[in-house]
Amino acid sequence: MRVCFLLKVSPEKVKEYKTRHAQIWPEMLDALSQSGWRNYSIFLRPDGLLVGYLEADDFEKCRAAMKNHPVNARWQAEMSGFFEPMPGGADDNMFPLDEVFHLD
Amino acid sequence: MRVCFLLKVSPEKVKEYKTRHAQIWPEMLDALSQSGWRNYSIFLRPDGLLVGYLEADDFEKCRAAMKNHPVNARWQAEMSGFFEPMPGGADDNMFPLDEVFHLD
């Protein structure tokens, strides 16, 4: 399955968010892969609107696996201050979108 | 390369937009494939914010190839009334985002 979600980075923290992701911890990449996140990209609009895209066999399982991963807890503790609340978002502020079209 | 762009569908036209894309013309799918658009998905937020994701060898070439495709001209003529202007968007209203992270 393909998953797309939105997040909102505070505009004044966009530059630092990019820097952090250019230096993401190798153990965080391993944790994502082990949790089943594949072909995962993050895209950013200059004002901080963030789009995540990934492929997974079962996203709810992947999301839960990451949520319970100790490396992720440390990463999210560093990241939580970067985000603004997203109207309609989940408690992790992620707002999943519906897929309305796909072409292989 | 991976490409992500935004578009804005008028909120009152979201339902019809979904219906049209569930019945997209086979020749439009062929035109996209021939123009090099791969693994192309469209995601939609209920208010009409649209996210497109695709993979391509050279997106500018793919975009130009579609722009010049006669099937696309017919499709876009039907679709143009669905979109609202996107601040900062191109003349086709597409707003491309920067990729800031990727994990295979």
Brief summary of the model shown:
Two copies of one chain form a homodimer. The first copy, chain A, is α+β, with helices and mostly antiparallel strands and 104 residues long. Chain A has helices at residues 14-22, 26-34, 59-67, 70-79; strands spanning 2-9, 38-44, 49-55, 83-84, 95-96, 98-103.
Give your account of this protein's structure.
- Two copies of one chain form a homodimer.
- With 104 residues, chain A is α+β, with helices and mostly antiparallel strands.
- Chain A has one domain (2-96): Alpha-Beta Plaits.
- Helix content of chain A is 36%, strand content 31%.
- Chain A is built from four helices and six strands.
- Chain A has helices at residues 14-22, 26-34, 59-67, 70-79; strands at residues 2-9, 38-44, 49-55, 83-84, 95-96, 98-103.
- In chain A, strands 1, 2, 3, 4 and 5 form a five-stranded antiparallel sheet that branches.
- In chain A, strand 2 (38-44) and strand 3 (49-55) form a beta hairpin.
- At the A-B interface, strand 1, helix 1, helix 2, strand 2 and strand 3 of A face strand 1, helix 1, helix 2, strand 2 and strand 3 of B.
